[in-house]
Design goal:
This protein has about 350 residues and is of the alpha/beta class. Helix content is about 40%, strand content about 20%. Helix 9 (about 295-310) runs antiparallel to helix 10 (about 310-325). The radius of gyration is 20 Å and the shape is globular. Bound molecules: nicotinamide-adenine-dinucleotide and manganese (II) ion (MN). Keywords: Manganese, Metal-binding, NAD, Oxidoreductase.
């Protein structure tokens, strides 16, 4: 029997509600297999920790995560702590510290979900957005001088490196190649941003030659938003810079029904470090502490975590349970127009996971 060591970091807001729910699903799964078990270690990092210690996570925090097989993360963000402190002090510290340079964000319209695009069938919207996760607009380089004076100046410098662009392009082409349509769209803005984005385009062309069987095209980021709404079926795998993909993936999640459903993996493709899985949503201040958060985004992230561990059958089993639950409108949370609570949805998914029939995907 294999033992997987999983770190759980609920963080802030509804992260504290959905991460325990995700752990419950993994525990339900472990109860019905002889193949593996999970050893969980929970880390109470986040804004509460910050209020006590002045930092979002301890200085040696990465070392405590280093030997885990995967990390399940909730959200960083608190009404009383500035967002750049919570984000940089925890989530980005882990993403950058473990060089999780590929952020993978699948989007599909799950059964039973009422998505806003009325002319779109579930088959028309089946995307994976690959977000460059280590540099670009969120490189963290910049500064402020003369604070508070009229001559105050501030910069956020976007950095793209050839090595960074090559590795994310290669990852995206490979992912596109593994999907049935073998179709990649490279998002750019090289008309206005005439240095780094031009290099981005050039590297895309170079890497494309390693993947002659992948069909690919380029789209400007602004036009891409319209294409996602008007011609969703023309897209499959999408690669974009850190900021562009951040925005496009919230749009993708909304088009597929709700921000509460969308999952993501922060992946170190070379497996030097643990990868981290999380719902794409944030702390949801408006509903936190009420038991109303949709846990589906976390459960789908758990599916990605299992796939990353190589447990494909188990992943299918959880996904089948998730789809059976979304198909039942009485198990929809408020964001989907329903009345179900986090606990209802979690219990339903756990019950299905533990029933062998759910294994047939
Ligand atoms: P948000 O995702 O927290 O909320 C946006 C809206 O979507 C809210 O109305 C919320 O109720 C709803 N929503 C989100 N997830 C839901 C779920 N699972 N179930 C039901 N409804 C859900 O985004 P925001 O308001 O822009 O950000 C709030 C805080 O979260 C900020 O501090 C922000 O910095 C942080 N944040 C963190 C992460 C992260 O750690 N990965 C990501 C995004 C935002
Ligand atoms: Mn985001």
């Amino acid at each position: 029997m294999k033992t997987y060591r999983i770190a759980t970091i609920p963080g802030d807001g509804i992260g504290k509600e959905v991460v325990p729910a995700g752990q419950q699903v993994l525990e339900a799964l472990a109860r019905c297999t002889q193949n593996f078990e999970f050893q969980f270690e929970n880390f109470d990092w986040g804004a509460d920790y910050y209020r006590q210690h002045g930092v979002m996570m301890p200085a040696d925090g990465l070392a405590a995560l280093r030997d885990k097989d995967a990390i399940l993360f909730g959200s960083a963000g608190d009404p009383d702590v500035p967002d750049h402190i919570t984000l940089w002090g925890l989530r980005l510290k882990i993403c950058q510290g473990f060089d999780q340079y590929a952020n993978v964000r699948p989007t599909r319209i799950l059964p039973g979900i009422d998505a806003p695009l009325k002319r779109c069938t579930p088959d028309d919207l089946n995307w994976v957005i690959v977000r460059e996760n280590s540099e670009g607009e969120y490189s963290g380089i910049g500064g402020r001088v003369h604070q508070g004076h009229p001559i105050e100046a501030a910069t956020d410098v976007s950095i793209l490196t050839r090595a960074g662009v090559e590795r994310i392009m290669r990852f995206a082409f490979k992912l596109a190649q593994s999907r049935p349509r073998k179709l990649l769209t490279v998002i750019t803005k090289s008309n206005a941003q005439r240095h780094a984005m031009v290099m981005w385009d050039e590297v895309a062309l170079e890497i494309s030659k390693e993947f002659p069987d992948v069909k690919w095209d380029k789209e400007l980021v602004d036009a891409a938003t319209a294409r996602m709404v008007n011609r969703p079926a023309t897209l499959d795998t999408i690669v974009a810079t850190n900021l562009h993909a951040d925005i496009l993936s919230d749009l993708a999640a909304a088009l597929a029904g709700s921000l509460g459903i969308a999952p993501t993996g922060n992946i170190d493709p070379e497996r030097r470090y643990p990868s981290m899985f999380e719902p794409i949503h944030g702390s949801a201040f408006d509903i936190m502490g009420k038991g109303l958060a949709n846990p589906i985004g976390t459960f789908w992230s758990v599916v990605m975590l299992l796939e990353h561990l190589g447990e494909f059958e188990a992943a299918k089993r959880v996904m089948a349970a998730v789809e059976a639950v979304t198909a039942d409108a009485s198990l929809h949370t408020g964001d989907l127009g329903g009345k179900a609570t986090t606990a209802h949805v979690t219990a339903a998914v756990c019950a299905l996971v533990e029933r062998t029939e759910a294994a047939v995907a």
